[in-house]
Write a structure and sequence with these properties.
single chain; globular; mainly alpha
Length: 372
């Protein structure tokens, strides 16, 4: 399922990208390179992989000029338009995909579910689930020709679509008469389709939290953590050991191996704080700092989690909140309520002086903060 947000490594790649260059052209008609549609799509995908969405947008425009009724072209263009923030253009691309192939390919419906709101989004997610189930059934019957899906769906894809529906009924559609029934039914279906999806139990924890069922929420958020956090911590620790070895073999970026997005990890940390699982919340937040130490919310939440644990942790809380404040002065941050809370906490903690050890950032985090 399409996932929002970028890790620190992704953001850095985007930041260091050179200015987009025009698609190469020859000096005259005879010398002009002859690009096939697939060539252009490959170049667009390569630009996406490098997080150079301006260049990807140029290649997508060229692909549209070559074939504006090609579903693959429209789908890729829609994805790029979402990345550059042009939701109207993305909606138009995916909408045309639906007109051309309404019963083939689930990705367009998942993207439309992200773009649209309320009941329209639910309809898109339900259609995506229908298409995915039909595709999987066709695969099981070895009738692969019946499916022309651009990406074969997995159990986790179906699970995640059900969770998107559940979250809509906890937010936009929470006042609907059958909101609670649809919400819990969608969560159960999500877990039934993929019992290894950590986000299923995380959303279930949030459902119980909304109902003020704290112990149940605590049980399910810890169940969710058990499915991903220990392995994620091990991957990051192994990365540090590998980088220190001169003859170490190349390995995949451990951050890419974490099965839930940074946004889902941040949500998990917030839930953990609400159920007073402060140590686990801090572990998740520290992991997020390893991925991207420029996210102001992470610094704030670590500070807040420490503050809530009492006097013995307030000096540590002050440290993280000060870093949060320093970072906020270097960016245009929209959540003024959060910044106001940081200021209030720092004023309360201003009399504290350093006694003993305070958390130490690794050299990369220090350098990044200084550079910003």
């Amino acid at each position: 399922m399409p996932r929002k947000g970028k890790t620190k490594q992704q953001a850095k790649k985007k930041n260091v990208s050179k200015k987009a260059k025009p698609i190469p052209k020859g000096t005259d008609q005879e010398d002009a390179p002859k690009y096939t549609l697939q060539d252009v799509l490959d170049k667009a995908q390569s630009s996406i992989n490098e997080y150079d969405f301006d260049m990807a947008q140029r290649y997508c425009q060229k692909a549209i000029e070559l074939d504006n009724e090609n579903v693959k072209v429209l789908e890729l263009t829609g994805h790029v338009m979402m990345e550059v923030g042009d939701m109207d253009a993305a909606k138009q691309c995916f909408g045309r995909c639906v007109e051309l192939e309404p019963d083939l390919g689930h990705i367009k419906y998942l993207y439309l579910g992200q773009i649209l709101n309320g009941s329209q989004a639910v309809q898109c997610y339900n259609k995506a689930i229908e298409v995915m189930l039909n595709c999987i059934e066709a695969q099981e019957n070895k009738a692969l020709g019946a499916s022309n899906d651009s990406a074969e769906p997995t159990a986790k894809d179906i699970s995640s679509a059900y969770l998107s529906i559940a979250e809509l009924y906890m937010t936009d559609l929470c006042d609907d008469e059958d909101a609670e029934e649809v919400c819990i039914s969608s969560i159960k279906k999500a877990i039934e389709h993929d019992q290894t999806n950590p986000e299923g139990y995380q959303v279930l924890a949030d459902y119980h939290l909304i109902k003020s069922e704290i112990e149940e929420a605590k049980t399910f958020i810890n169940k969710s953590l058990s499915l991903w956090l220990p392995n994620a911590k091990g991957l990051v620790a192994d990365e540090g050991e590998i980088e220190g070895g001169a003859e170490a073999a190349p390995v995949a970026d451990p951050i890419d191996c974490i099965p839930i997005s940074p946004e889902a990890q941040l949500k998990a940390a917030k839930t953990l704080i609400e159920v007073e699982e402060y140590n686990s919340a801090t572990e998740v937040l520290e992991l997020l700092l390893d991925q991207d130490d420029t996210v102001l919310d992470v610094w704030y939440l670590i500070g807040w989690a420490n503050y809530l644990q009492g006097d013995d942790y307030k000096l540590t809380a002050k440290y993280y909140l000060e870093r949060c404040h320093e970072l906020s002065e270097k960016m245009d941050y929209e959540d003024k309520d959060l910044l106001s809370h940081v200021a209030e906490l720092l004023e309360e903690l201003s009399s504290l002086t350093e006694q003993g050890d305070v958390p130490e950032l690794d050299s990369d985090q220090d350098e990044q903060m200084d550079a910003d």
